[in-house]
Design a protein that fits this description.
By secondary structure, this protein is α/β, with parallel strands linked by helices. It is built from 8 helices and 6 strands. The strands form 2 sheets. A 3-stranded mixed sheet has the order 1-2-3. A hairpin with a 2-residue loop joins strand 5 and strand 6. Helix 3 runs antiparallel to helix 4. The radius of gyration is 21 Å and the shape is globular.
């Protein structure tokens, strides 16, 4: 008998609030030893967020800050503006990044499967969509989560090869 999503899904899923700060999110992910989590707003799942999303946002913000800083450096060279003013602008960009919330970094597109979805279909979704976790829903309600680690663990435990036999 082929395994289904319900057979491998984690049912104790840590969710995070959309208004949580990115700094707090990082702390929650580390404390729970997970790489990402579903995002809820008003009790409804509205997205998913991962460490990769945080890194992507931080990298983009820092790149933009560098461009702005370079622009102001060129102006400073001509205007004689003190270096302290430039430092203040760079500090402002860092503070802006610290003020970011989960909703700013999350992916709003939800990739979901039902509990009855065959595991090979879940694996196909993970590979084709280049994602590491898929939400398991029933009547639009979150009932579980399957990560790529869950699939690897099932292979290592021999559960997938036994199911295929």
């Amino acid at each position: 008998m082929a395994l289904c999503a319900r057979d491998l899904m984690q049912t104790e899923v840590k969710t995070v609030d959309a208004s949580m700060s990115l700094a707090m999110l990082e702390e929650v992910l580390l404390r729970n030893r997970v790489g990402g989590a579903p995002v809820v707003d008003g009790g409804h799942v509205v997205g998913i967020v991962s460490r990769s999303d945080i890194v992507r946002m931080a990298t983009l913000d820092r790149s933009l800050a560098g461009v702005v800083s370079d622009f102001y450096q060129q102006i400073t060279d001509f205007s004689g503006e003190p270096a302290a003013q430039q430092w203040k602008r760079e500090q402002h960009v860092e503070e802006h990044l610290a003020d970011r919330q989960v909703r700013d970094a999350m992916t709003p597109e939800l990739i979901t499967v039902s509990p009855a979805t065959p595991i090979h279909e879940v694996a196909r979704l993970l590979v084709e969509r280049h994602i590491h976790r898929v939400l398991v829903t029933e009547s639009k309600r979150l009932v579980g989560l399957i990560s790529s680690s869950d699939l690897v663990r099932a292979i290592a435990d021999g559960r997938l090869s036994e199911a295929a036999a």
